[in-house]
Specification:
217 residues; mainly beta; 8-stranded antiparallel barrel; 3 helices; 11 strands
Length: 217
């Protein structure tokens, strides 16, 4: 993700202030504080799967961390650089595409103990609000559905930059993270360790390393 660099083109000069005798709406105040480069990104985007990662990490046996990712998903992104609250994201993940690098473990994850993909083949995230926290940091709140259970999550989202690649595609980079308790979505399978603790942590860190390409339509 470090290949992205800030574009210095398409700079938008702020309009002169006009004293109307009324207070300025909060959305206008926030938008005026945004980097002009962010405003230039307003539009529809699609996640470029070969250069992105929708992943997770979870503590195993209390002492190590297992990492995995989902390889097959569809995305619809809209970023509003002037009014971040209008930004939104939809992500539909086909859970059978889970990949932890160990075939036996992947088979266990897609089985009834965990995702039960025969009954629940998709995991879905749909954003409900986006807040600009300052600089290049945003907080996106959305509904995450796993095994037909839908619960809200807060995603910390950081803008990394944008670039026009050698093939003429405009790309923007984002890093997103959140930590969930898998039991809230009915993923309760576990084994107790003799020394205390559990084989698989209930806390799961979700990671979104996004290379997004501007949609032509």
């Amino acid at each position: 993700m470090g290949i992205f660099s800030r574009r210095q083109t398409d700079v938008i000069e702020p309009a002169p202030a006009v004293d109307t005798g009324t207070s300025v709406p909060e959305t206008a105040t926030v938008g005026a504080a945004l980097d002009p480069a962010l405003r230039a990104l307003t539009g529809r985007w699609t996640i470029d799967r070969p250069h992105s990662r929708i992943g997770f990490s979870v503590r195993h046996a209390m002492v190590t961390t297992v990492r995995g990712s989902f390889l097959d998903y569809d995305s619809t992104l809209y970023f509003d650089g002037a009014r971040p609250s209008q930004s939104r994201a939809d992500l539909v993940i086909r859970v059978a595409s889970v990949d932890t690098g160990v075939e036996q473990r992947d088979a266990h994850l897609v089985g009834r103990d965990f995702f039960d993909v025969r009954r629940y083949p998709e995991m879905i995230f749909r954003s409900t609000s986006t807040l600009h926290e300052g600089g290049e940091s945003f907080r996106m709140t959305g509904d995450l559905t796993i095994r037909d259970v839908t619960r809200p999550v807060d995603l910390q989202l950081d803008y990394l930059g944008s670039v026009l690649d050698p093939f003429g595609f405009e790309r923007a980079g984002f890093d997103g993270t959140t930590t969930i308790d898998r039991r809230d979505w009915g993923l309760v399978y576990n084994q107790r360790l003799k020394a205390g603790g559990t084989m698989v942590s209930e806390k799961v860190r979700l990671q979104f390393d996004i290379s997004a390409v501007r949609s032509m339509s």
